[in-house]
Specification:
The complex is a heterodimer.
Chain A: E1 4-13, E2 16-26, E3 31-35, H1 42-50, E4 57-62, E5 65-66, E6 77-80, H2 92-102, H3 107-121, H4 136-148, E7 154-158, H5 166-183, E8 186-191, H6 194-200, E9 203-208, E10 211-216, H7 218-223, H8 228-233, E11 240-249, E12 252-256, E13 261-263, H9 266-272, E14 279-284, E15 289-291, E16 306-316, E17 321-327, E18 330-336, E19 347-352, E20 358-360, E21 367-369
Parallel strand pairs in A: 3-8, 3-9, 6-7, 7-8
Antiparallel strand pairs in A: 1-2, 1-4, 4-5, 9-10, 11-12, 11-14, 12-13, 14-20, 15-19, 16-17, 16-19, 17-18, 20-21
Helix pairs in contact in A: 2-3, 2-4, 3-4
Chain B: H1 2-36, H2 40-45, H3 57-63, H4 75-106, H5 112-123, H6 131-140, H7 147-171, H8 175-184, H9 188-199, H10 201-217, H11 220-225, H12 234-239, H13 249-269, H14 271-280
Helix pairs in contact in B: 1-13, 3-13, 4-7, 4-10, 5-7, 7-10, 8-9, 10-14
The chains are: A alpha+beta, B mainly alpha.
């Protein structure tokens, strides 16, 4: 078992910089997620740690050992691939035993480890089968089993659940989390799915265009996104973004969107005072906007963060519902009670919680201040 | 109306067309087999006589000792030469073709695309255009009338095709399989040997068959580059049953049947690999 340290890691493909000066310290036994959209460099970073890609610059340490010139087979890592990568010409037993045979383990040792891993994953009855005879979920378990038998220092996983259907994905998420708790080995997990990231990881590394945007626990990146990209990427549906200015109105620092104003909460005022009179971007999560009863339409007070919004789309989703509304030409997503859904075309009053606003500098896109408490409705 | 016409086409015209081309293709072969068992006198006087007189004398003369027929005693040498040249050509083509095909499929290097286009272009080059320079090269290094000049020539014809087909096959194998093998404990070459090669067996079979059969049938280069039975191959040996003043039909027909046994057996037993080989180049090109 070992931690992983990356120091100024850079990987170029010709003129394209896939991984750009990434430095990261991963603790021994930590479950860390590399999250980002397609093409952000997360898989390239994972492959560089594995040694499957040569790096252009920087250093990689697994434990205390410098790995730059060490081939993949000597790094004591195990990897689970998106397409499982099971050897089609071998049965499940041989797939799992392959790495141990290459390391010249004894027959007894191989047999013991394969059966132990198979028992852990519930695939003992599949050992004689070929990969083509297995379902997607079974193949994924075999791929995990092949990694487990190696007893590596680090597990690397490249979007292992993306080829599974939704129900199986939820099941396997729990299995992998349980596996990590049991093995207590370092897991580095690549995904573009933020639900996987938020539910499985100890910490999340958010990447964009090869650069780290933010590193933090799921709670940190959700409650205090470091920039506009992270704020929009984390959370489903995405955070609503508004262009406006910070002004003073009736003595209170206020976000002024033109057609409405939202007074800021106290802590946000402390952090954002120096932005008074300047343009800012304000973000608010769908759960931080409250749809008021229709009878309250008369209380619309554009200066108090209460606005009238026309409903464009209604999306009931079982135990939650979302409405897409138009406020003075800007589109918002709002979480509502599924038991009292408005209709398309209705005008509903919305209250925007000023203490749940996230403020960002429009030029650097970085956060000025975060929300000081949890949004109005639980996430 | 169009449905009726379509039915007519399917039921009558299409089978007729297939039958015609089948007869057109097989007729010479069938005649060759028939004529190899008929005495020369009957062939010349009344080839369709019923009942025909069958004899195995043509085959006896083909393999008999010297002085029993025109060039017959050399036919056995020609068989050995053909087998040797074709087998070595196939092995060398597979060795270079597989390693080269892997490089094209997996490695990044300068000039790769230009080299691939060049390979494609030289497949269109008529082989007869290089016969004189090749003859001069062979003469300069004293390789004329040896197996090696033929192996060199046939390998150079076969390699572009082998490289192209094997590249297509390797590209169809997911990279993640090799990556998994490298993480599990293989070197890059080890992953090639233990994972890529076993999965490419159909591609190997297809290119081996094509290479072997093309070399087996080759006549022109063998005729120019060899002048005695140290290196003459079967096609040349067969042509020598036709001399300036006479044609030994019996030996020609029986020789032709013998020369075709191996290709027919290969084609019939390995036809699924031939079909796979024909389509392999189109996979993930």
């Amino acid at each position: 078992m070992a931690g992983v340290t990356l120091k100024h890691l850079t990987k170029r493909f010709g003129k394209v910089v896939a991984v750009n000066d990434v430095s990261l310290e991963i603790e021994d036994g930590e479950f860390i997620i590399l999250l980002g959209p397609s093409g952000c460099g997360k898989s390239t970073l994972l492959y560089s740690i594995a040694g499957l890609e040569d790096i252009s610059d920087g250093e990689i340490y697994i434990g205390d050992r410098l790995m730059n010139r060490v081939p993949p087979k000597a790094r004591n890592i195990a990897m689970v691939f998106q397409d499982y990568a099971l050897y089609p010409h071998m049965n499940v037993y041989d797939n799992m035993a392959f790495g141990l045979k290459l390391r010249r383990a004894s027959k007894e040792e191989i047999d013991r480890r394969v059966h132990e891993a198979a028992a852990l994953l519930g695939i003992e009855h599949l050992l004689e089968r070929r990969p083509r005879e297995l379902s997607g979920g079974q193949r994924q378990r075999v791929a995990l089993g092949r990694a487990i038998v190696r007893e590596p220092d680090v597990f690397l996983m490249d979007e292992p659940l993306s080829n599974l259907d939704a129900i199986l994905r939820v099941q396997m998420r729990a299995e992998i989390s349980k596996l990590h708790s049991r093995l207590k080995t370092t897991f580095i997990y690549v995904t573009h799915d933020q639900i996987e990231a938020m539910t499985m990881g100890d910490r999340i590394v958010i990447l964009r265009d090869g650069l780290i945007q933010q590193v933090g626990t799921p709670e940190e990146v959700y409650a205090n996104p470091a920039n506009v990209f992270v704020a929009g990427f984390i959370g489903t549906p995405s955070m609503n973004m508004m262009q406006g200015h910070l002004t003073r109105h009736d003595g209170a620092l206020t976000f002024d969107a033109g057609s409405f104003r939202v007074p800021l909460g106290t802590a946000a005022v402390e952090r954002a005072t120096h932005y008074e009179g300047r343009p800012v971007i304000a973000g608010v999560r769908p759960s931080a906007i409250q749809a008021l009863p229709r009878g309250a339409a008369g209380d619309v007070a554009a200066g108090a963060g209460i606005v009238a919004a026309r409903v464009d789309v209604v999306e009931p989703m079982g135990d939650v519902a979302y409405i897409f509304v138009d406020v003075g030409g800007q589109s918002f997503t709002v979480r509502v009670d599924p038991l009292s859904l408005p209709r398309v075309g209705d005008v509903v009053p919305l209250r925007i919680d000023g203490s749940a606003l996230h403020l960002f500098d429009p030029e650097s896109q970085r956060a000025i201040s975060g929300a000081v408490r949890e949004p109005v409705a639980a996430r | 109306m169009s449905g009726h016409r379509h039915g007519l086409l399917r039921r009558i015209l299409f089978p007729l067309g297939v039958a015609f081309f089948t007869v057109f293709s097989l007729a010479p072969f069938v005649w060759m087999v028939y004529a190899s068992f008929v005495p020369k006198s009957q062939l010349l006087s009344d080839p369709f006589a019923l009942p025909p007189q069958f004899t195995i004398n043509n085959y006896y003369r083909l393999f008999a000792s010297a002085n029993d027929g025109i060039g017959a005693d050399n036919f056995r040498h020609a068989i050995i030469n053909s087998l040797g040249v074709c087998a070595v050509t196939t092995l060398i083509s597979l060795l270079i073709g597989s390693i080269g095909g892997y490089a094209f499929a997996r490695l990044r290097f300068g000039g790769k695309n230009a080299l691939l286009l060049f390979l494609l272009a030289i497949q269109f080059l008529p082989s007869v255009t290089v016969i004189i320079p090749m003859y001069r090269m062979g003469s300069a290094v004293h390789l004329l009338n040896t197996w090696w000049i033929l192996i060199f020539a046939y390998t150079s014809f076969a390699l572009p095709f082998t490289l192209w087909i094997m590249r297509g096959y390797f590209e169809s194998i997911p990279r993640s399989l090799e990556n998994a093998a490298r993480v599990d404990g293989c070197s890059r070459f080890g992953a090639f040997l233990r994972v890529v090669l076993p999965l490419s067996a159909p591609g190997f079979a297809a290119t081996a068959i094509f290479t072997f059969l093309n070399a087996w049938d080759e006549f022109f280069f063998a005729l120019i580059f060899t002048n005695n039975y140290a290196a003459k191959t079967l096609p040349v040996a067969l042509s020598e049953f036709t001399s300036r003043h006479t044609i030994d039909f019996g030996l020609q027909m029986s020789g032709g049947v013998v020369a075709n046994i191996l290709p027919v057996v290969i084609a019939l037993s390995m036809q699924r690999y031939i079909v796979r080989g024909l389509t392999a180049g189109g996979v993930k090109g």
